[in-house]
Specification:
This protein has 161 residues and is of the alpha/beta class. The chain has one domain: Rossmann fold (3-Layer(aba) Sandwich), CATH 3.40.50.1240. Helices cover 28% and strands 20% of the residues. The chain has four helices and six strands. It has a six-stranded mixed beta sheet with strand order 3-2-4-1-5-6, with helices on both faces. Helix 1 runs parallel beside helix 2. The longest helix is centred in the N-terminal third of the chain and has 15 residues.
Length: 161
């Protein structure tokens, strides 16, 4: 069994004259990430690895989650493949994951994450919101065998307020 937990970065700010990769989280983005990670913490299973887009907003969201879930920073890796908006690089990333990893958490962007969630899960999701979490389970032993799985849960900030 393979488990993929996808988290879209928190709400980011457009108030600064910085590159897309350097945009920071808004206060709401921080608060929503804390809200969702706290809810997920009550039911989180063992997570073998965490991967994040190099974008500031995604990495900051990943740090909030890893702290809330008490995940060692040694399990966190930054990968350019998750700085993707279409989903194609995310699909490649998933299929190339090491099979010794059973449960993986990834932090990235839309429209990629909504596309991946709808392509690989069995529940249609109109939009993976900022700080939104989608957990998918796959009854396979190898990541390159992942096709259609089960959408085990979604946690969106608006549902927790």
């Amino acid at each position: 069994m393979k488990t993929l937990i996808m988290v879209r970065h928190g709400k980011s700010s457009w108030d600064y004259s910085v590159s897309d990769k350097d945009r920071p989280l808004q206060e709401r983005g921080v608060n929503d990430a804390l809200l969702v990670s706290s809810k997920f913490n009550s039911q989180a299973e063992n997570i073998d690895a965490v991967f994040s887009s190099p974008a500031n907003r995604a990495l900051h969201t990943a740090m909030i989650f890893t702290r809330q879930l008490s995940i060692s920073l040694s399990l966190v890796q930054i990968t350019n493949e998750l700085y993707d908006f279409s989903g194609e690089s995310v699909f490649d990333f998933i299929s190339n994951l090491d099979d010794s990893l059973d449960s993986v958490m990834i932090f990235g962007h839309n429209h990629a994450f909504t596309h991946v969630a709808n392509s690989l899960g069995n529940t249609y999701i109109d939009n993976v919101t900022t700080s939104g979490l989608v957990q998918l389970n796959f009854p396979v032993n190898s990541w390159n065998s992942v096709t259609k799985g089960t959408t085990k849960q979604t946690i969106f900030p608006k549902d927790l307020r």
